[in-house]
Amino acid sequence: MLQAPKSDRLLGERQPLYTIIALDLDRLALSLAALDVQLELSLTTNAKATASNVYHNLPEYGPDKALDGRDDTRWATDEGTTSVWLEVDLGKPTEFSHAVIVQAFPELKRIHRLAIEYFEDGYWKTSFRGPGPRREA
Questions:
Q1: pLDDT at 61
Q2: Which of 81, 61, 63, 57 is nearest to 72 (CA)?
Q3: pLDDT tens-digit profile of 45-86?
Q4: Per-residue confidence (pLDDT) for residue 65, from 0 to 100
Q5: 81 and 127, same structural domain?
């Protein structure tokens, strides 16, 4: 039986910013069988990406790096660039409920505004327009 404690022995009352999950186990953790967790594949897996700008045209900063799912790669643009686009071709019309946009080096706060658009009937249409990614306080 797994129960989440109401408090943490080291921190006192649970701090939501510090506690990811805390468990009190009724037996040794090593005796518990591992769970096979199926991760949901991103809709962008194997999608084609193009971009209006790539840092010095270097392939290691190409638009495909925005979709590779890795934390050690990124799409990057040239210095002084103030407006860019990244187009993701999912291969067919696809409905989705949310998008995850992660800015490399968020402390630089380079993304001020963003839009998510789709191509329909020969025109680009906006489905979302708003501020850049959330900034940590």
A1: 97
A2: 61
A3: 879 999 999 999 999 999 999 999 888 999 999 999 999 999
A4: 95
A5: yes
- Tokens read off for 66: 């925005």
| Inter-residue contact 124 to 116 (CB < 8 Å) | no
Query: Is residue 1 predicted with pLDDT exceeding 50?
Result: no
Q: Is there a single domain that holds both residue 106 and residue 67?
A: yes
Q: What residues contact residue 42 under an 8 Å CB cut-off, 6+ apart? A: 67, 69
Range of the domain at 62: 48-131
User: Bridge-partner residues for 60, per DSSP?
Assistant: none
Q: What is the DSSP string of 13-80?
A: E--TTT-S---EESS-GGGSPPP-PPPPPPTTTT-EEEES--GGG-GGGSGGGGSS--SS------TT
Number of domains in the chain: 2
Look at residue 2 and give its three-state secondary structure.
strand
Model confidence band, residue 111 (pLDDT cutoffs 50, 70, 90):
confident
- Burial label for 36, CB within 10 Å (0-12, 13-18, 19+), is exposed
